Amino acid sequence: MNYRRLGKTNFDVSEIGYGAWGIGGKQWLGGTDDESLVALRRAIELGLNFIDTALAYGDGHSEKLVGRVVREAGHRIFVATKVPPKNGVWPAQPGVGIHQVFPYDYIMHSAEQSLRNLGLDAIDILQLHVWNAEWVDREEWRKAFEELKRSGKVLSVGVSLSEHDPDSGLGVVRTGLVDAVQVIYNIFDQLPEKQLLPLCLKENVGVLARVPLDEGGLSGHLDENTKFAPGDFRGFYFRGDRKKQVVEHVSALRRDLGEGIDLPEVALGFCLSHTAISTVIPGMRTKRHAESNIAVSDLGPLPSETLAILKRHSWDRNFYN
Ligand SMILES: NC(=O)c1ccc[n+]([C@@H]2O[C@H](COP(=O)([O-])OP(=O)(O)OC[C@H]3O[C@@H](n4cnc5c(N)ncnc54)[C@H](OP(=O)(O)O)[C@@H]3O)[C@@H](O)[C@H]2O)c1
Description:
The chain has a single domain, classed as Alpha-Beta Barrel (TIM Barrel). Helices cover 37% and strands 13% of the residues. The protein is built from 12 helices and 10 strands. It has an 8-stranded parallel β-sheet with strand order 3-4-5-6-7-8-9-10, covered by helices on one side. The chain has a two-stranded antiparallel ribbon with strand order 1-2. Helix 2 links the parallel strand 4 and strand 5. The structure holds NADP nicotinamide-adenine-dinucleotide phosphate (NAP). NADP nicotinamide-adenine-dinucleotide phosphate (NAP) binds next to helix 11.
Protein backbone atom coordinates (compact mmCIF):
# COMPACT_ATOMS: atom_id res chain seq x y z
CA MET A 1 0.00 0.00 0.00
CA ASN A 2 1.23 3.49 -0.84
CA TYR A 3 0.30 6.57 1.15
CA ARG A 4 -0.34 10.19 0.15
CA ARG A 5 -0.30 13.34 2.24
CA LEU A 6 -3.85 14.70 2.51
CA GLY A 7 -3.68 18.41 1.64
CA LYS A 8 -2.33 20.61 4.41
CA THR A 9 -3.02 18.05 7.16
CA ASN A 10 -0.29 15.83 8.53
CA PHE A 11 -2.30 12.71 7.58
CA ASP A 12 -0.55 10.19 5.35
CA VAL A 13 -3.56 8.30 4.06
CA SER A 14 -3.62 5.01 2.19
CA GLU A 15 -4.23 5.41 -1.55
CA ILE A 16 -7.08 2.94 -1.24
CA GLY A 17 -9.52 3.99 1.48
CA TYR A 18 -12.71 2.26 2.61
CA GLY A 19 -16.13 3.58 1.54
CA ALA A 20 -18.45 2.62 4.39
CA TRP A 21 -21.86 3.52 2.96
CA GLY A 22 -22.66 -0.05 1.94
CA ILE A 23 -22.07 -1.44 5.43
CA GLY A 24 -24.73 0.80 6.97
CA GLY A 25 -27.23 -1.92 6.16
CA LYS A 26 -30.19 0.24 5.14
CA GLN A 27 -29.63 1.58 1.63
CA TRP A 28 -27.40 -1.22 0.38
CA LEU A 29 -28.90 -4.62 1.06
CA GLY A 30 -27.41 -8.06 0.90
CA GLY A 31 -24.38 -7.87 3.17
CA THR A 32 -23.99 -8.87 6.81
CA ASP A 33 -22.19 -7.15 9.66
CA ASP A 34 -19.92 -10.15 10.09
CA GLU A 35 -18.89 -10.01 6.44
CA SER A 36 -18.34 -6.24 6.65
CA LEU A 37 -16.18 -6.57 9.77
CA VAL A 38 -14.07 -9.26 8.11
CA ALA A 39 -13.57 -7.01 5.06
CA LEU A 40 -12.71 -3.98 7.19
CA ARG A 41 -10.24 -5.89 9.36
CA ARG A 42 -8.57 -7.48 6.35
CA ALA A 43 -8.29 -4.08 4.66
CA ILE A 44 -6.59 -2.66 7.76
CA GLU A 45 -4.29 -5.67 7.96
CA LEU A 46 -3.24 -4.93 4.37
CA GLY A 47 -2.33 -1.33 5.18
CA LEU A 48 -5.57 0.59 4.59
CA ASN A 49 -5.73 3.45 7.10
CA PHE A 50 -8.56 5.67 5.84
CA ILE A 51 -12.30 5.07 6.22
CA ASP A 52 -15.12 7.28 4.99
CA THR A 53 -18.42 6.91 6.83
CA ALA A 54 -21.39 9.11 7.72
CA LEU A 55 -23.97 9.51 10.45
CA ALA A 56 -26.62 8.89 7.79
CA TYR A 57 -25.27 5.49 6.76
CA GLY A 58 -27.76 3.22 8.48
CA ASP A 59 -28.51 5.93 11.09
CA GLY A 60 -25.13 5.50 12.76
CA HIS A 61 -24.75 1.77 12.12
CA SER A 62 -21.82 2.23 9.73
CA GLU A 63 -20.10 4.57 12.23
CA LYS A 64 -20.52 1.97 14.98
CA LEU A 65 -18.89 -0.79 12.91
CA VAL A 66 -16.11 1.55 11.81
CA GLY A 67 -15.46 2.70 15.38
CA ARG A 68 -15.22 -0.89 16.53
CA VAL A 69 -12.50 -1.86 14.05
CA VAL A 70 -10.61 1.42 14.52
CA ARG A 71 -10.53 1.02 18.31
CA GLU A 72 -9.29 -2.54 18.08
CA ALA A 73 -6.68 -1.78 15.37
CA GLY A 74 -4.09 -0.52 17.83
CA HIS A 75 -2.58 1.92 15.34
CA ARG A 76 -3.60 5.14 13.60
CA ILE A 77 -6.59 4.81 11.29
CA PHE A 78 -8.07 8.04 9.89
CA VAL A 79 -11.85 8.34 10.02
CA ALA A 80 -13.88 10.77 7.96
CA THR A 81 -17.56 11.14 8.75
CA LYS A 82 -20.35 13.50 7.75
CA VAL A 83 -23.05 15.76 9.12
CA PRO A 84 -26.34 14.86 7.41
CA PRO A 85 -28.51 17.71 6.09
CA LYS A 86 -31.01 18.69 8.78
CA ASN A 87 -33.83 18.81 6.22
CA GLY A 88 -32.98 15.28 5.02
CA VAL A 89 -32.63 16.39 1.40
CA TRP A 90 -29.83 15.07 -0.83
CA PRO A 91 -28.36 16.83 -2.77
CA ALA A 92 -28.56 20.45 -1.54
CA GLN A 93 -31.24 22.38 -3.43
CA PRO A 94 -30.64 25.81 -4.95
CA GLY A 95 -32.31 28.55 -2.94
CA VAL A 96 -32.60 26.50 0.27
CA GLY A 97 -30.81 28.45 2.99
CA ILE A 98 -28.13 27.02 5.25
CA HIS A 99 -30.31 27.77 8.30
CA GLN A 100 -32.58 24.93 7.13
CA VAL A 101 -29.76 22.51 6.36
CA PHE A 102 -26.74 23.18 8.59
CA PRO A 103 -27.52 25.55 11.48
CA TYR A 104 -24.55 26.01 13.84
CA ASP A 105 -26.07 24.12 16.81
CA TYR A 106 -27.13 21.26 14.57
CA ILE A 107 -23.60 20.78 13.20
CA MET A 108 -22.20 20.76 16.76
CA HIS A 109 -24.83 18.25 17.93
CA SER A 110 -24.29 16.00 14.92
CA ALA A 111 -20.53 15.88 15.52
CA GLU A 112 -21.16 14.81 19.13
CA GLN A 113 -23.51 12.06 17.97
CA SER A 114 -20.89 10.78 15.50
CA LEU A 115 -18.25 10.76 18.23
CA ARG A 116 -20.56 8.67 20.42
CA ASN A 117 -21.28 6.24 17.58
CA LEU A 118 -17.61 5.92 16.72
CA GLY A 119 -16.49 5.68 20.34
CA LEU A 120 -13.48 7.84 19.50
CA ASP A 121 -12.08 11.04 21.07
CA ALA A 122 -11.81 12.90 17.77
CA ILE A 123 -13.03 12.82 14.19
CA ASP A 124 -10.19 13.12 11.68
CA ILE A 125 -12.29 14.75 8.96
CA LEU A 126 -15.79 16.09 9.56
CA GLN A 127 -17.57 16.78 6.27
CA LEU A 128 -20.88 18.42 5.46
CA HIS A 129 -22.79 15.68 3.64
CA VAL A 130 -24.23 18.11 1.08
CA TRP A 131 -22.92 21.40 -0.19
CA ASN A 132 -24.44 24.44 -1.88
CA ALA A 133 -22.09 27.07 -3.33
CA GLU A 134 -24.54 29.76 -2.15
CA TRP A 135 -23.46 29.08 1.45
CA VAL A 136 -19.81 29.87 1.00
CA ASP A 137 -19.86 33.16 2.95
CA ARG A 138 -22.27 32.01 5.68
CA GLU A 139 -21.01 31.91 9.20
CA GLU A 140 -22.92 28.78 10.34
CA TRP A 141 -20.47 26.26 8.88
CA ARG A 142 -17.42 28.48 9.32
CA LYS A 143 -18.11 29.04 13.04
CA ALA A 144 -19.00 25.40 13.72
CA PHE A 145 -15.91 24.06 11.97
CA GLU A 146 -13.68 26.60 13.72
CA GLU A 147 -15.15 25.77 17.14
CA LEU A 148 -14.97 22.00 16.61
CA LYS A 149 -11.33 22.25 15.52
CA ARG A 150 -10.48 24.48 18.46
CA SER A 151 -12.03 21.97 20.88
CA GLY A 152 -9.90 19.15 19.42
CA LYS A 153 -13.01 17.05 18.75
CA VAL A 154 -12.50 17.45 15.01
CA LEU A 155 -9.02 17.56 13.49
CA SER A 156 -9.86 18.64 9.97
CA VAL A 157 -12.92 19.54 7.93
CA GLY A 158 -14.37 19.18 4.47
CA VAL A 159 -17.44 19.11 2.28
CA SER A 160 -18.94 16.39 0.13
CA LEU A 161 -19.94 17.86 -3.21
CA SER A 162 -23.14 17.25 -5.14
CA GLU A 163 -23.27 14.50 -7.73
CA HIS A 164 -21.73 15.47 -11.06
CA ASP A 165 -21.28 19.10 -9.97
CA PRO A 166 -17.63 19.36 -8.92
CA ASP A 167 -17.47 23.07 -9.70
CA SER A 168 -19.85 23.74 -6.80
CA GLY A 169 -16.76 23.21 -4.64
CA LEU A 170 -14.50 25.82 -6.23
CA GLY A 171 -15.58 28.66 -3.94
CA VAL A 172 -15.25 26.71 -0.71
CA VAL A 173 -11.81 25.42 -1.72
CA ARG A 174 -10.71 29.03 -2.34
CA THR A 175 -11.74 30.08 1.19
CA GLY A 176 -8.81 28.09 2.58
CA LEU A 177 -11.16 26.91 5.35
CA VAL A 178 -11.54 23.28 4.29
CA ASP A 179 -8.90 20.59 4.37
CA ALA A 180 -10.63 18.19 1.98
CA VAL A 181 -13.39 17.85 -0.57
CA GLN A 182 -15.16 14.65 -1.50
CA VAL A 183 -16.24 14.29 -5.12
CA ILE A 184 -17.42 11.69 -7.61
CA TYR A 185 -14.46 10.88 -9.83
CA ASN A 186 -14.45 7.82 -12.07
CA ILE A 187 -13.99 6.75 -15.69
CA PHE A 188 -17.51 7.92 -16.53
CA ASP A 189 -17.42 11.18 -14.56
CA GLN A 190 -14.15 12.95 -15.34
CA LEU A 191 -15.56 16.47 -14.78
CA PRO A 192 -13.40 17.19 -11.69
CA GLU A 193 -10.32 17.25 -13.95
CA LYS A 194 -11.45 20.48 -15.57
CA GLN A 195 -11.31 22.86 -12.60
CA LEU A 196 -11.66 21.23 -9.20
CA LEU A 197 -8.61 18.95 -9.19
CA PRO A 198 -6.19 21.61 -10.53
CA LEU A 199 -7.53 24.08 -7.93
CA CYS A 200 -7.14 21.55 -5.10
CA LEU A 201 -3.53 20.96 -6.16
CA LYS A 202 -2.89 24.71 -6.21
CA GLU A 203 -4.56 25.30 -2.83
CA ASN A 204 -3.19 22.08 -1.33
CA VAL A 205 -6.64 20.75 -0.42
CA GLY A 206 -7.09 16.98 -0.10
CA VAL A 207 -9.47 15.12 -2.45
CA LEU A 208 -11.45 12.00 -1.55
CA ALA A 209 -12.49 10.28 -4.80
CA ARG A 210 -15.87 8.69 -4.21
CA VAL A 211 -17.99 6.23 -6.21
CA PRO A 212 -14.94 5.04 -8.21
CA LEU A 213 -16.89 2.00 -9.46
CA ASP A 214 -20.02 3.95 -10.45
CA GLU A 215 -22.05 2.24 -7.70
CA GLY A 216 -21.21 -1.08 -9.39
CA GLY A 217 -21.53 0.04 -13.02
CA LEU A 218 -17.74 -0.29 -13.32
CA SER A 219 -17.49 -3.44 -11.20
CA GLY A 220 -17.59 -5.68 -14.26
CA HIS A 221 -20.49 -7.66 -12.76
CA LEU A 222 -23.54 -5.68 -13.78
CA ASP A 223 -25.62 -7.02 -16.64
CA GLU A 224 -29.14 -6.47 -17.92
CA ASN A 225 -30.50 -9.23 -15.66
CA THR A 226 -28.91 -7.98 -12.44
CA LYS A 227 -31.59 -7.74 -9.76
CA PHE A 228 -31.50 -5.75 -6.54
CA ALA A 229 -33.62 -6.41 -3.47
CA PRO A 230 -36.63 -4.11 -3.04
CA GLY A 231 -35.46 -1.01 -1.18
CA ASP A 232 -31.83 -1.33 -2.30
CA PHE A 233 -30.57 2.05 -3.53
CA ARG A 234 -29.10 0.44 -6.63
CA GLY A 235 -32.55 -0.61 -7.83
CA PHE A 236 -33.27 3.12 -8.15
CA TYR A 237 -29.86 4.08 -9.55
CA PHE A 238 -29.95 1.39 -12.26
CA ARG A 239 -33.68 1.55 -12.99
CA GLY A 240 -35.43 1.38 -16.36
CA ASP A 241 -33.06 0.86 -19.28
CA ARG A 242 -30.06 2.13 -17.35
CA LYS A 243 -28.48 -1.31 -16.89
CA LYS A 244 -28.61 -1.71 -20.66
CA GLN A 245 -26.94 1.69 -21.11
CA VAL A 246 -24.20 0.73 -18.65
CA VAL A 247 -23.62 -2.61 -20.38
CA GLU A 248 -23.21 -0.81 -23.72
CA HIS A 249 -20.73 1.68 -22.27
CA VAL A 250 -18.76 -1.02 -20.46
CA SER A 251 -18.64 -3.18 -23.62
CA ALA A 252 -17.24 -0.24 -25.59
CA LEU A 253 -14.68 0.35 -22.85
CA ARG A 254 -13.61 -3.29 -22.85
CA ARG A 255 -13.33 -3.30 -26.66
CA ASP A 256 -11.01 -0.28 -26.55
CA LEU A 257 -8.89 -1.56 -23.68
CA GLY A 258 -8.50 -5.06 -25.10
CA GLU A 259 -9.02 -8.55 -23.76
CA GLY A 260 -8.12 -9.58 -20.25
CA ILE A 261 -8.53 -6.27 -18.49
CA ASP A 262 -9.71 -6.21 -14.90
CA LEU A 263 -12.31 -3.45 -14.88
CA PRO A 264 -12.27 -2.54 -11.14
CA GLU A 265 -8.48 -2.49 -11.26
CA VAL A 266 -8.48 -0.05 -14.19
CA ALA A 267 -11.26 2.02 -12.58
CA LEU A 268 -9.33 2.47 -9.32
CA GLY A 269 -6.04 2.97 -11.19
CA PHE A 270 -7.73 5.74 -13.19
CA CYS A 271 -8.48 7.66 -9.96
CA LEU A 272 -5.02 7.15 -8.51
CA SER A 273 -3.34 8.31 -11.72
CA HIS A 274 -4.34 11.90 -10.90
CA THR A 275 -1.95 13.47 -8.40
CA ALA A 276 -4.70 15.63 -6.84
CA ILE A 277 -6.40 12.52 -5.44
CA SER A 278 -5.43 11.82 -1.84
CA THR A 279 -7.33 8.54 -1.54
CA VAL A 280 -9.96 6.63 -3.51
CA ILE A 281 -12.73 5.13 -1.38
CA PRO A 282 -14.48 2.15 -3.02
CA GLY A 283 -17.31 0.48 -1.16
CA MET A 284 -16.17 -3.10 -0.50
CA ARG A 285 -18.16 -5.28 1.82
CA THR A 286 -16.32 -8.49 1.05
CA LYS A 287 -12.83 -9.61 1.96
CA ARG A 288 -12.24 -10.61 -1.67
CA HIS A 289 -13.02 -7.12 -2.93
CA ALA A 290 -10.94 -5.50 -0.19
CA GLU A 291 -7.94 -7.64 -1.14
CA SER A 292 -8.16 -7.05 -4.88
CA ASN A 293 -8.81 -3.31 -4.52
CA ILE A 294 -5.92 -2.79 -2.12
CA ALA A 295 -3.57 -4.57 -4.53
CA VAL A 296 -4.19 -1.75 -7.05
CA SER A 297 -2.10 0.69 -5.01
CA ASP A 298 1.06 -1.29 -5.75
CA LEU A 299 0.50 -1.13 -9.51
CA GLY A 300 1.26 2.60 -9.74
CA PRO A 301 -0.33 5.07 -12.19
CA LEU A 302 -1.86 3.74 -15.40
CA PRO A 303 0.21 4.05 -18.61
CA SER A 304 -0.53 7.23 -20.58
CA GLU A 305 -1.91 5.16 -23.51
CA THR A 306 -4.51 3.61 -21.19
CA LEU A 307 -5.42 7.01 -19.76
CA ALA A 308 -5.85 8.35 -23.30
CA ILE A 309 -8.34 5.56 -24.03
CA LEU A 310 -10.24 6.18 -20.78
CA LYS A 311 -10.50 9.89 -21.59
CA ARG A 312 -12.81 8.96 -24.49
CA HIS A 313 -15.20 7.08 -22.19
CA SER A 314 -16.45 9.91 -20.01
CA TRP A 315 -20.24 9.83 -19.97
CA ASP A 316 -22.41 12.81 -19.16
CA ARG A 317 -25.49 11.64 -17.22
CA ASN A 318 -26.98 11.74 -13.73
CA PHE A 319 -28.46 8.46 -12.46
CA TYR A 320 -29.06 9.96 -9.01
CA ASN A 321 -32.04 11.91 -10.38
N1 LIG B 1 -22.81 12.05 -0.89
C1 LIG B 1 -21.73 11.43 -0.46
O1 LIG B 1 -20.97 11.97 0.30
C2 LIG B 1 -21.46 10.02 -0.93
C3 LIG B 1 -22.31 9.42 -1.87
C4 LIG B 1 -21.97 8.15 -2.32
C5 LIG B 1 -20.84 7.50 -1.84
N2 LIG B 1 -20.05 8.11 -0.89
C6 LIG B 1 -18.85 7.45 -0.35
O2 LIG B 1 -18.13 6.84 -1.40
C7 LIG B 1 -17.97 5.44 -1.13
C8 LIG B 1 -17.86 4.66 -2.41
O3 LIG B 1 -19.03 4.72 -3.16
P1 LIG B 1 -20.09 3.53 -3.20
O4 LIG B 1 -19.77 2.56 -2.14
O5 LIG B 1 -21.43 4.17 -3.20
O6 LIG B 1 -19.88 2.90 -4.67
P2 LIG B 1 -18.63 2.32 -5.47
O7 LIG B 1 -17.42 2.32 -4.62
O8 LIG B 1 -18.59 3.02 -6.78
O9 LIG B 1 -19.11 0.82 -5.76
C9 LIG B 1 -19.30 -0.12 -4.75
C10 LIG B 1 -19.74 -1.43 -5.38
O10 LIG B 1 -18.63 -2.02 -6.09
C11 LIG B 1 -18.46 -3.35 -5.64
N3 LIG B 1 -17.02 -3.67 -5.67
C12 LIG B 1 -16.04 -3.15 -4.89
N4 LIG B 1 -14.84 -3.65 -5.25
C13 LIG B 1 -15.07 -4.53 -6.25
C14 LIG B 1 -14.23 -5.37 -7.01
N5 LIG B 1 -12.91 -5.41 -6.83
N6 LIG B 1 -14.81 -6.13 -7.98
C15 LIG B 1 -16.13 -6.09 -8.22
N7 LIG B 1 -16.99 -5.30 -7.52
C16 LIG B 1 -16.46 -4.54 -6.54
C17 LIG B 1 -18.99 -3.39 -4.24
O11 LIG B 1 -19.34 -4.70 -3.88
P3 LIG B 1 -19.41 -5.20 -2.36
O12 LIG B 1 -19.80 -4.02 -1.53
O13 LIG B 1 -20.47 -6.23 -2.39
O14 LIG B 1 -18.07 -5.72 -1.96
C18 LIG B 1 -20.19 -2.48 -4.37
O15 LIG B 1 -21.27 -3.18 -4.93
C19 LIG B 1 -19.19 5.12 -0.25
O16 LIG B 1 -19.09 3.90 0.42
C20 LIG B 1 -19.20 6.33 0.64
O17 LIG B 1 -18.19 6.22 1.63
C21 LIG B 1 -20.35 9.36 -0.45
